[in-house]
Design brief:
This protein is mainly beta and about 450 residues long. It has three domains: about 250 residues, no CATH class; about 150 residues, Mu homology domain, subdomain B (Immunoglobulin-like, Sandwich), CATH 2.60.40; about 35 residues, no CATH class. It is about 5% helix and about 40% strand. The strands form six sheets. Strands 1, 2, 4, 5, 7, 10, 11, 12, 13 and 14 form a ten-stranded antiparallel sheet that branches. Strands 15-16-17-22-19 form a five-stranded antiparallel sheet. Helix 4 packs antiparallel against helix 5. The longest helix has 9 residues.
């Protein structure tokens, strides 16, 4: 799509192509057990050259997913995490507005015309059970587990159709503590919405269905935090939320990983030096629309590397979705850290579409650009390994005197020892491994010169 003009002529993509043209407005629905429910208003746009079916009483309409993310600084490092997700709003009719392009009116409420946009307000997107339009229930929230995000296929009627529950049931759920400014000083927050529909997918236009927008956290009223979209933070069309980390910090490495014949993952990574002479590594992996789920993640750290503070973060499924939420365990082997989903079977805590998981650790090894490995589930609980460009630790030098790890012992290593002079726990410059960088380490470098 030509986005040089946000509301004017567009160069259309081939086939029907729905995107999130804007995120406008929000609703909060209440808090239960420290978890608050929200919904966001979405404006869809058809930037394709064919109409997009929007038929309420069938599987030929979009479903809309809502997600929330937080970027904060922890121990000097940026940390981008998903803090909430919703069930899926089912579409039920389309208008003929011009939010993205000039609309060609199809004169059909059951189609989104070429160039046309359609607004759903936050209240409608948070409606649990939908309503009866005279032909049956439409427009409620349905389970994610029934939808193939790559093909856009889902059953009709969907599970729990017409069912309502407490204030947070099916809606975008966020733990109140994850929004509390006192515990998240300086944090930035982002809403992401995603449309999934079969005709868009069949046309090969299912990789641009995400858009994100930054939102603000306000006051704490009636048991939950208020939110607001600031006019200064515009919608980032056709960009997944994980890209907000890269947008905020250009030193983040962001890689696209496509599963052959299936969907897409994005892998973001960043390394920062800590005050203790270690390096902290942060990874975020987002499953955009792959129906083959992530079930493992691995990073090589080198033989006998010092590794500490191994961590993991995910986002919880809820409201009766069948998935387990057990955290992945990070295990250090001879030369790598690997996180694996626990247990076996289809309902384990796999990295499913619309979710983002985090992996982190500290090590003495400085960073370089290399490859991380993402393990993806296939049939029969087997899997395939996919490589992602990422920031990873340098391998350990062949000899401790090679302080810089470049394969040579030379003046660079002498300078590294001098720069680290004094007490230094876990420093590469501590050639003699006695937690002190001194003349003995200088002599060790000189003795291995060349």
């Amino acid at each position: 799509m030509n986005q040089s003009s946000r509301a004017g002529e567009c160069t259309p993509n081939t086939g029907p192509d729905v995107i999130v043209g804007d995120l406008v407005g929000w609703s909060k629905w209440g808090t239960v057990g420290g978890i608050s429910a929200y919904s966001f208003g979405t404006t869809s746009c058809n930037v394709g050259d064919q109409i997009l079916p929007w038929i309420a009483h069938s599987h030929q309409h979009p479903v809309i997913a809502m997600h929330a993310f937080r970027l904060k600084t922890v121990a000097g490092s940026g940390r981008f995490e998903q803090i909430g997700l919703s069930w899926l709003k089912h579409g039920w009719g389309a208008l003929t507005e011009n939010a993205c392009c000039i609309c060609v009116n199809p004169n059909n409420f059951e189609a989104l015309g070429v160039g046309c946009s359609d607004p759903y307000d936050a209240g409608l997107n948070g409606d649990q059970n939908g309503f009866n339009d005279g032909q049956g229930i439409v427009a409620g929230l349905g389970p994610r587990s029934e939808v193939n995000p790559f093909t856009g296929v889902f059953p009709w009627p969907y599970g729990t159709q017409g069912a309502a529950g407490n204030a947070i049931y099916k809606r975008l759920q966020i733990h109140s503590v994850d929004l509390d400014p006192a515990q998240n000083a300086g944090a930035s927050y982002f809403a992401e919405c995603q449309y999934v529909t079969p005709d868009d997918a069949a046309a090969g236009n299912h990789f641009n269905n995400h858009s994100y927008r930054r939102f603000m956290v306000g006051s704490f009223t009636n048991g939950s935090w208020t939110l607001a979209f600031n006019a200064g933070f515009l919608i980032q069309r056709e960009k997944a939320a994980i890209e907000a980390w890269k947008d905020a910090d250009p030193q983040v490495t962001l890689a696209t990983v496509d599963v052959p014949g299936n969907g897409r993952f994005l892998v973001a990574s960043r390394a920062t030096e800590t005050s203790s002479g270690m390096w902290h590594y942060e990874y975020a992996v987002q499953n955009l629309n792959a129906s083959l789920n992530g079930r493992g993640f691995a990073v090589e750290v080198g033989v006998n590397a010092t590794v500490a503070n191994i961590g993991f973060h995910d986002v919880d499924h809820h409201s009766g979705e069948p998935y387990d939420d057990t955290d992945w365990a990070g295990v250090v082997s001879a030369n790598e850290i690997r996180w694996n989903v626990g247990g076996s079977g289809p309902n384990t805590n796999q990295l499913r579409w619309g979710t983002l998981y985090n992996f982190r650790f500290d090590t003495t090894r400085p960073p370089q650009i290399g490859l991380a490995t993402l393990f993806v589930t296939t049939s029969g609980d087997k899997g395939i390994n996919l490589q992602a460009t990422a920031v990873v630790p340098m391998p350990a030098p062949l000899h401790p005197a090679d302080v810089t790890g470049d394969g040579n012992v030379n003046v660079d290593d002498l300078l590294a020892v001098i720069n680290a002079w004094g007490q230094c726990i876990g420093c590469p410059a501590d050639v003699n491994d006695d937690n002190l960088v001194n003349v003995d380490d200088l002599l060790a470098v000189i003795n291995k010169w060349g």
